[in-house]
Specification:
This protein has one domain (3-54). It contains 4 helices and no strands. The radius of gyration is 11 Å and the shape is globular. It is mainly α. It starts with a helix and ends in a 10-residue tail after the last helix. α1 (3-13) runs parallel beside α4 and α2 (17-24) crosses α3. 62% of the residues lie in helices and 0% in strands. It has helices spanning 3-13, 17-24, 28-36, 43-54.
Amino acid sequence: MTAQLYRLALARLRWSHDHAARELGVNPTTSWRWARGDTKVPAATARLLEMMLRGAWQPLKRRA
C-alpha cells in the first residue's frame, strides 16, 4: 500500500491519524509516517484496511 492509498483509505473510512492509530494499535506518529511515505505500511495493516473498505471487517465496539 502506497502512502497515497493509505491516505485515501483513512479519508474513505473518515479516520484521523489519531483514530487510525488507536484502531490499528500503533503510535499516531507511525500513522503520519505511513501517510508521508517515510515508512512502508505493513502488509497485514494494508490488508486489514482493504478489508474494512470492502465492508468485510468492522472494528469491535469498545465498552466504556
